[in-house]
Specification:
The protein is 70% helix and 0% strand. By secondary structure, it is mostly helical. It has a single domain, classed as Orthogonal Bundle (Tetracycline Repressor, domain 2). Helix 7 runs antiparallel to helix 8 and helix 10 packs antiparallel against helix 12. The protein starts with a helix and ends with a helix.
Length: 314
């Protein structure tokens, strides 16, 4: 493991890379946050769990839904960075974001955000109307988050978690399959866990300046967030175990062995807690996955084990 793996947030806790060469174009690419696209892979959950992964049309529709989510997510990041540019300049890491640092003009960022939203919604509509409305719901949620939800205690994290759920639902709507309520619940709880971890990291990183950067952080404390994470950790694991034992899940997988994949889920959660509490991590879950090899291995082994259990008979 490299040195960054032990501290995934080193130099990048705010989700933005330090300034690099590349001028405006490079700044635009960084502002789009392509490293965050890993979150949109949740759109593939439905096609994998439903057993349609090897169907060409279903796979193309899922890929289109993934692209639509990536475009609209980038638009949301651009818009959010424009709104928060003044506050970001008071953050030790976020001040290096291209819009906050002045590398990317605000007018250009807003124009690109509009183009990306139009492109994402257009692709979603080309898939089907249901996908269009779920992506539109995602755009609406992220906009509301940037404007006011992120300023309301607890609701800010609930909004972030809801965005993860909409990613899963978008993938299901793209291939017109019914999504499992258990899978949605597990996604929501896991996203809550990550969201509370992110808030905790911001408090620890900014210390006395936390409320200056983002007033809502004044409503949180590390102790309160630790309690929330403990509750959500237990609920996440219990929900996933119950999902694997559900008769519908067993019938769909033609196996009772899915429960054994909970080992990888449990390890991933414990590894994340270790990074948050022992390595001052948690600022950006997506970057933690990119930089921490044990987390990568847990994720890969979980995906492979689920894939094998679902498609072994094919």
């Amino acid at each position: 493991m490299n040195s960054n793996a032990s501290n995934p947030t080193a130099g990048n806790s705010g989700g933005a890379a330090p300034p690099k060469n590349g001028g405006v174009l490079g700044g635009v690419v960084r502002s789009m946050r392509p490293t965050e696209y890993v979150k949109n892979t949740l759109a593939f959950a439905a096609i994998i769990f439903s057993g349609h992964f090897f169907e060409r049309t279903a796979l193309l529709h899922t890929l289109a839904a993934f692209v639509a989510l990536c475009l609209t997510a980038s638009a949301a990041y651009l818009y959010n960075d424009v709104r928060d540019r003044e506050a970001d300049r008071n953050h030790p890491v976020k001040r290096n974001r291209p819009i906050a640092s002045g590398t990317v003009p605000t007018g250009l960022a807003v124009a690109l955000a509009i183009v990306y939203i139009a492109g994402g919604l257009g692709i979603a509509l080309a898939v089907n109307r249901s996908t269009f409305f779920t992506v539109l719901g995602y755009v609406t949620l992220t906009t509301c988050y940037s404007v006011f939800l992120k300023h309301i205690v607890i609701l800010d994290v609930l909004a972030l978690a809801s965005g993860f759920v909409l990613r899963v639902i978008t993938g299901a709507e793209a291939i017109q399959v019914e999504f499992s309520p258990w899978l949605v619940l597990c996604t929501f709880l896991l996203a809550l866990f990550l969201g509370f971890g992110k808030r905790r990291h911001e408090l620890v990183l900014l210390e006395n300046n936390a409320q200056t950067h983002r007033p809502i952080l004044g409503e949180y404390s590390p102790h309160f967030l630790d309690m929330m994470m403990a509750v959500v950790t237990a609920a996440t694991m219990m929900s996933y175990v119950l999902y694997t034992m559900d008769p519908v899940t067993i019938a769909r997988f033609h196996s009772k062995n899915l429960i054994y994949t909970s080992v990888f889920v449990l390890y991933g959660i414990f590894r994340y807690l270790y990074l948050v509490h022992q390595k001052a991590g948690g600022g950006n879950p997506a970057h933690m996955i990119y930089l921490d090899r044990p987390l990568q291995m847990a994720a890969v082994l979980w995906v492979l084990s689920v894939f094998v259990l679902r498609y072994w008979s094919i």
